[in-house]
Amino acid sequence: MPAGSVTLGGRFKGEMDEAQVSGLVRLAEWIAVQAALGPDGKLVVMGEEETIEGDSDASHMSIILKSLTVDGWVAIGLLTVMLLMKRIS
User: Fold this and answer.
1) Which CA distances in Å does 88 have to 79, 83, 84, 85?
2) Domain count within the chain
3) Where does the sequence pass through the membrane (predicted)?
């Protein structure tokens, strides 16, 4: 068990989605170097941006259609065939 308190954030501005605590003991010098490196270091890892800038014209339907897998397209095809069979009979 580590002794002392842990402070997350400090001068951080933004939303933090996830924090992981390492089980390794790090020297203060290592932490200082990694903090000085910023996003390029191993101390802070920036995630992928979830918002799409400049693509404000994209509708929800186009985003869903772009992210469909092969299984999703097969299900849509089968449901379309079933709908057409229902209308014919």
Assistant:
1) 14, 9, 6, 5
2) 1
3) 63-85
